[in-house]
Amino acid sequence: MNVIEIDHLTKYYGKTRGIIDVSFSVEGGEIFGFIGPNGAGKSTTIRTLLGLIYPTSGSAKIFGKDCIAHGPEIRRQIGYLPSEVFYYDGMKVGDLLRYSASFYRKDCSKRIQELAEVLDLDLTRKIDDLSYGNKKKVGIVQGLLHEPKLIILDEPTGGLDPLMQQKFFDLLLEENKKGATVLLSSHILSEVQRLCDRVAIIKDGRIVKVEKISTLKESNYKRFKCEFTAMPDANMFSIDGVENLTIDGNVASFLFRGDVNKVVRMLATLDITDIWAADPDLEEIFMHYYEKEA
Ligand code: ADP
Asked: Is 280 helix (H, G, I), strand (E, B) or coil?
């Protein structure tokens, strides 16, 4: 069953493009990544999902209910971490979290304690005195304290150090194991690839691809880098399957997809001083894909 269904959603801010014709679905129990550079339209999509802004056209459903018509009811079942968090600075962390919890009409005090412990967050501190990373942690606890069935996080990792990021990802995995569905936006694919089952890639307000992470990884590109005693004519590299060729001094670097024998035969005719062949990282495949789409 789909927990989120986005159907031809378009949002203009006056004349400014927010998102155009965005459609994708997130299945129950998935950890779904929403990836794209800054300004691509991730926050706009998410804010529309939460019923915080109105779409220009199209619609979205969460738990089978229209996001606009049932906004308040849906929001009570969602844990949301906005990309930027603002607080009443004078409050203490614990007071703020208790205030947030009162919105859900259930006792969340035990969960608040647990989360604060895992994230190493001092509940007695004033929000005023917290670093950016610690404010982010407050947002994370706020998003998770009521054990929501759907967790939506907009660029959650900014400001978290690698250790904290790992703890936070472990928390999400734990919630996911208990049955929560997760939608996680980021501008850095490599950061979320370990966590997500599928990703939607958004660029300039439009979805360019929805794909399983495992399929993206299987795109069977190889990254080749060769050092020659003397750089051969660039024409040597114009064989089928060679892409993104860069030449730097005596070093040629390219992506290759296809019958690897073709590359090996071409290289065998040249005088090589060093060679590297490796799987490109996902970021590289992603960037490559992006450039092609553009
Ligand atoms: P992302 O979250 O991927 O960084 P956003 O959804 O924030 O992208 O932005 C998408 C586009 O919509 C950008 O061009 C941005 O400038 C524009 N935009 C976002 N919010 C507003 C707003 N409140 N008023 C006008 N334009 C906006």
From this structure: coil
